[in-house]
Protein: Response regulator transcription factor
Amino acid sequence: MQLANKIIIADDHPLFRAALRQAVGQAIEGVEIVEADSLAAVQEAVVEHSDADLVLLDLHMPGTNGFTGLVFLRGQNPGMPVIVVSGSEEVSVMQRAMDYGASGFIPKSAPLEVISEAIVAVLEGEEWLPREITESTEDDVTEEERKFAAALASLTPQQFRVLTMLTEGLLNKQIAYELNVSEATIKAHVTAILRKLGVHSRTQAVIAAQKLSVDPARTELD
Structure:
């Protein structure tokens, strides 16, 4: 029996998507590959291809930053395993990705055969981290961050998009224009977001979301 029939590759760099396609092809012959270049595209792909066996997810794409996309994707699709593929090679970043529900973490510097090995391992039900990385025995995610992650996962896709735009500093009017809805609709979304996240202001919501970011200075390959 084939390990997988369909895999979603989510990365906004066409060249790296091509590299991942090659790695997937080496790991599994005849597998269907679905590509996405933003979090919104990933969400659409997951809905349209709910039978996908695996998602390969970049941490930094349009519509997401850091672990927010991973947390949201896992919350919305708990049965679909996710391997994070990132330019960051910090042990703490790898461990936090696993804490937030990833089944594996592949550095973008890894050779194709290692990427293939990781894909096979996760599809066989294992967790995968680079061999040279010793998993930290400490939990890098605080209880406060864990609670926020659970709350973040409860947002609807549209609410998540609004929150992402809030973190980018956009005003309600600007968000309404971008999403082609009324400003009143955005205000309603913001109210619901604050309630679900257990915060009292937009500023608090943005600060909480930024705790799930990854230091951009350490993700130059992303």
